Amino acid sequence: MRRQYLPVLDSREAAQWDQLSISAGITSTTLMSWAAYAVFQEITQLDNFNNYTDIHILTGPGNNGGDGYALAWLLGASVDKNIFIWKFQNPATIDSKYFAEICTKIKSANISIEDISMFQPINLSHTSIIIDAIYGIGLNKNLPDQIQKIITLINRNKKSLKIAIDISTGLSADGAIFSNEPFKADITITFGAYKIGHLIEPGILFTGKIIVKPVGFISQLQPPRRLISPVIIIPPLRKEDSHKYKNGVAHIFGGSSGMEGAAIMAAYAFLALGGGLAKIYTTSPDLKNILSILPELMVISNNDPEKIEALYLDALQNRTENSTCIIGPGKSEILSSSFWKTVLNIDIKIIIDGSSLKNIYLNKDLFKKQKSATLIFTPHLSEAESLLQKKISNIREAALEIVNNYNTHIYFKGPGGLITFYPYSEEVFVNSKEYQLSTGGTGDILCGVIANMLVRKMPVEKALESAVYLYSKSATKVTTNYTKNNKSIKDFLLPSELIEELRKTMTALTV
To answer: Is the pTM here over 0.85, yes or no?
Structure first.
C-alpha cells in the first residue's frame, strides 16, 4: 500500500510553497487574505467566542504581522468586540502595509493600534484573547529583549486564551533550540502543512492544539518524506501451530544490581503482548528472587561481568530463528569493545537503550562499519548528547546525525517523539504530548513493545513505527482514564497501568 503523507515542512520548503503559488498567479495579498480568513474562522467558531470581550493582536513588521493586520480587519468588520493591535515596529512588507492601512480606515470598527511598549499583560482577563503575529517561520535567532519581556509576562498570565498564527514567536520552524522563552499558545493555527518546529522539542511544548488550515497553496514540490504517525494495524503473532519459539524470544541484557526493575519491565511488556519467551541476562544476584512474583521470566545471572557477557553472546550466536535482543535496560557496566564487535557481527535485530547508549560512542567506528545487525536506538536527550559527544541544538538534526554515525534506526524519546530510519528514507513525527511517560520504567516497557513488534516479522521500519504508535496511544488512554469532578486529570501514570492498557489497545489494532 502506498504511504499517505501529511507533509511536515522546514522553513525553506514553506517559503518555496509560497513562491510556487505566487508564480502560478496567486498574489501574495490573496494568500495573506486566505490565511487571515482561516484564522478568523477558527476563532469565531470557538464554543465560547461570544464570552470574549477583547482581542489583542501582537504584530511584527513582516508577513506574520501582516496576517495579524488582515485578521484585525476581518474581526473589526464582522464582530462587536474591542480589537487592539500592538505593533512591534512599523509594517515593513508590501502586504503588511496594505492590511495595516485598511485597519486605520475602517471607521465602523473598534480597532486601535498602539506601540507594543504600551501593552500591559497584567490587565488581561478571562475574557481576553491574545493573538501572536510577531514573528513567523523565518525566525532564526533569539528574540529582542523587549519582545522577550512581554512574552514572559503573557505566559505567566493563565487567564487569557492564547493563539499563535503559523508558529509561536520564539520558535524555529526548523526545530532549532534558542535560549529565549517562546510564546506559549493554547492553539496554533498554521497554514498548508505542519512545520518541523511544531512537532519536536521545544516547539511541541509551546504550540498547544495544532490546527492545519488549507489556504490555497499550489506546490509542485515532491512532498518531503516526513509524516505524522499514521494509524497502525498490527499483524497477529500467534497461529494455530504456534509454540513459544515461533512466538519470539527476547534476549535482554541488563538489570544490574539496584536496577533490576528495568530489565523486568522490558521482559514483562514483551510477554504481555504475546511474546513466546523472555530471557534476562544479568550480573545481579537478586533478580532470581523476582521469579516467585513473575515466574514467566527466565533469569540467567553471574556476578562476573565478563562471564555474563560470554553467556549472552553464546545465547545470541545459538539463538532460535525468531529472536531479538534488548541491550541496556538497567545496565550499569560498560560493555567491552570485544562484546560489541561480536554482537554487531550477528544477523539479529538489536534494541539498545538506557545506560548502554551513554558509552557506545567509545566504539562508534565499530557501529559505523557493521553490516550484519539491524539496530534500533531509543535515546532521550541526554543519551543522544552522549552519543554525539556534544550539546544538541536541534533534535531533528541530531537524530539524522546519530542515524548516519551509528548505522541505526532511532526513536528519539521525549516531548513530540521522532522516528528516523536508516538508511535515511523518511521521518515519522509521533506528535505525542504525554508528559506522564517521564516515569521510571516506561522507557523499558517501550523496549519490550518494540521487541514484540520485531518478532511479528514485519519490516523493521514498520515494527518500530507500530511499537511507538501502540505505546503512545496506550499512554494517552491511561492518562485520560482518571477523572475528578467529571474533569480529566493527567498528572501521573504507573508503568504497570501502561502494560495493561497496551494489551487492550493492541487487541483493537490487531487483524
So the answer is: yes
